[in-house]
Amino acid sequence: MENRPKSNTPQADLFATVNNYFLLFFCVSCVLSSMFIQQLFILVGQYRLGIGVSSIVGIVLPMVLLARKFPGGVPAQLRLSRPRLHRLILVIVATVAAVVLVDQIYVINQRFSPVPEEYADQIRELRPDGALQFIVTLLGLCFLVPIAEEVVFRGMIQRIFARNMGAFAGVFLAGAIFGAVHLNAHLLISITVFGLFLGYLFQATGNLVYPIVAHSIFNGFALWQLVSDTNVEAGNLPIYLQDVRWVVAALVVFVFLVAKIRRGGSESSPAPLPAEPVVE
């Protein structure tokens, strides 16, 4: 007959096992290292390539190496699971509406905080010239960056604050830090607002896949504006901001879908406990 002795070992969750102040320091270190790596690529004239490399080396790799040491590995510890199709569609549509609203906030903010010339030069440099540059930019901006930033800001930082200060503080503080690390005053408000939306998605669904998808769509719109001739060179507004009715419609759709998304409940499950030794 087999008996399993009672164990005083805490649940094998990354955030319950590792000191949360250390985790926060670890996250900040990853973000700073990613920024440092990207600056190195900028210095050698490889800004485009540095976007993807800095995301992988500075954030994704350290996070994966840490999370894989705990039961369930990366998917369980970072709350990555297959999304529900119906909910995924709602998130996609809500994100498109959010893009309209965030871009409107950005346009308004530009009146008070003009775009720095240095930042404008970097954006022009990022504009792809040819198929290869477009692919490199697409992979970095719309795939690697969303994964890296959502893993560290929502998957880690937001959960640290939420565990210790409550869900609202987790969403708000992670969103504020997300906006601040972009290091541009003209982006602070708009990026923070979008960060709050991403935090809400994660808090409402418990699945990091949804904010990753939303972040990818947001960056995809930015890339579309970059390769088109509407914003970078001429300074014209995107077509969806040229008529205020688009903004109003986006606001209505956004508010409706945000409520619908929350009704699905959390999709995350507790991380599995480590296997206990069997005593015969």
Question: Using DSSP, what is the number of strands?
Answer: 0
Structural class: mainly alpha
Distance between the termini: 6 Å
Share of β-strand residues = under 5%
Total helical elements = 11
Instruction: Catalogue the unreliable spans.
Output: 1-10, 275-280
Helix content: over 70%
Please state the CA-atom Rg, rounded to the nearest Å: 20 Å
Q: Encode the helix/strand succession as letters.
A: HHHHHHHHHHH
Shape: globular
Q: What integer is the average pLDDT?
A: 87
Question: Mind summarizing the main beta sheet?
Answer: none
Topology:
Layout (H helix, E strand, L loop, with lengths): L13 H4 L2 H24 L3 H21 L5 H6 L6 H26 L6 H10 L4 H35 L1 H14 L4 H21 L3 H19 L16 H19 L18
Helix pairs in contact: 2-3, 2-7, 3-7, 5-9, 5-10, 5-11, 7-8, 7-10, 8-9, 9-10
